[in-house]
Amino acid sequence: MPTKRDTDTLILNAFADLVTKYGYKATTTKKIATAAGVNEITIFRHFKDKAHLLDSLISQYMETVDELEGQFKISGDIATDLTWIAKTYEEFVANHRALFTI
Length: 102
Description:
This protein has 102 residues and is mostly helical. The protein has one domain (4-101): Tetracycline Repressor, domain 2 (Orthogonal Bundle), CATH 1.10.357. Helices cover 78% and strands 0% of the residues. The protein has 6 helices and no strands. The protein has helices spanning 4-22, 29-36, 40-47, 50-71, 78-95, 97-101. Helix 1 (4-22) crosses helix 2 (29-36) and helix 2 packs across helix 3. Residues 5-65 form the HTH tetR-type domain. Keywords: DNA-binding, Transcription, Transcription regulation. It comes from Lentilactobacillus kosonis.
């Protein structure tokens, strides 16, 4: 049986994918439930409404920003540092594309 965290992840991933494809307004809780493979009422039990789903995505975004800030160490070589920043930024945008879409 999936844990609450597993279910939250399924719902958030479905929400993020749908927002990326259709936009925030067109992403309904019914579509999210279908994509996540859960009952629509489960979404409301876990997140209250679509706005709380968005808040959760923003929280994940901010957690990633904090993690990345702690990971970056200046190497002293500009090419190495800029390459790390560019690769990290590319991954960051890809992982948070739903928020960039909104």
